[in-house]
Amino acid sequence: MTDPDTREEIMAATYEALCERGYTDLTTRDIADRTDKSKSLLFYHYDSKEDLIADFVEFLTERFDERVAETRDRPPAERLTRIVDWFLYDPEDDERTSFHTAMLELRVQAPYEERYRERLRAGDDHLRESLTEILRQGVESGDFRDHDPDAAAALLLAALDGARTRRLTVGRDAYLDEVRSAIDGWILADLLADDADDEPAGRPAAE
Fold it and tell me: How many Å apart are CA 204 and CA 199, to the nearest integer?
């Protein structure tokens, strides 16, 4: 088991290398050069590049958990809009654009690499469960109308994934803002209870 400090260093280096090199051109040397470890020492902790990347996907899920945990004392509508903003990032953010491009490359490998597929599926399930939890919390608190949280979470997740993928593959930067506006104005506005005090940040009041 890799100790937490070493893993944190390797994961940070993997993130930087993915942003700069992309997944297709990524090598273990690229990652090792961004740590104080040699390539051979890197393989002391991971058997292969594939094992390292699979652990990186799991690491991202853990970091998402931490972000969700930071919002637990906030109203459900605000928690949802924060997640939307995390995923529908500013198109002018070159670092996040490069990173998400690399992750899209990685997703393309998933049908042929079981380790990637398993970790990506686990992360996808976890994200959907987090969205469902927030939606269910909103129903129980009276902030949201009664609805099916599982179905709403699936719709939100499809919208977030679709927006990022289309932006990266066809180069339509405006698509992220368009989808964010649609989520705010249609999905979240429809979920919000008539007598709710809190409005999701950045969208018009529900009518």
Answer: 8
Could you say which of 3.60.10.10, 3.40.50.720, 1.10.357.10, 1.10.760.10 is the CATH number of the domain covering 49-191? 1.10.357.10
* Other CB atoms within 10 A of residue 67 CB: 12
Q: Which residues are within 8 A (CB) of 78 and not within 5 positions of it... i.e. 6 or more apart?
A: 71, 198, 200, 201
Structure tokens at 179: 């989808």
Q: Are 146 and 82 in contact (CB under 8 A)?
A: no
Distance between alpha carbon 12 and the CA centroid of its chain, in Å? 16
The percent helix, strand, coil of the chain (3-state, each to 5) is 70, 0, 30
pLDDT digits (tens, 9 = 90+) for 132-184: 999 999 999 999 999 999 999 999 999 999 999 999 999 888 888 899 899 98
At a CB cut-off of 8 Å and minimum separation 6, what does 162 contact?
179
Distance CA 143, CA 198 (A): 8
Residue 201's pLDDT is 46
Instruction: Determine whether 150 is exposed, middle or buried from the number of CB atoms within 10 Å of its CB (0-12, 13-18, 19+).
Output: middle
Amino acid code (one letter) for 28: T
